[in-house]
């Protein structure tokens, strides 16, 4: 809680809405451990659940 409120300066709603995975990602970003490149399978997964709209694609 000290990290969320003190370091990240989150409000109570934002803090309690975060998942443990989000808190870890924020911690990694603050302490410089977030410089790992995204793996291809993670990118493929994101592209599958958040596809581009056909109207936004160039031919």
What would your notes on this structure say?
The protein is mostly helical and 59 residues long. It has one domain (2-56). The protein is 56% helix and 0% strand. It contains 4 helices and no strands. The longest helix is centred in the middle third of the chain and has 11 residues, at 20-30. 0% of the residues are buried.
CA(first)-CA(last) distance: 49 Å
The parts where pLDDT drops under 50 for at least 5 residues are none
Question: Which term fits the overall shape?
Answer: flat
**What number of structural domains do the residues give?**
1
How confident is the prediction overall: mean pLDDT?
87
Structural class: mainly alpha
Reading the helices and strands in chain order gives HHHH
Strand content: under 5%
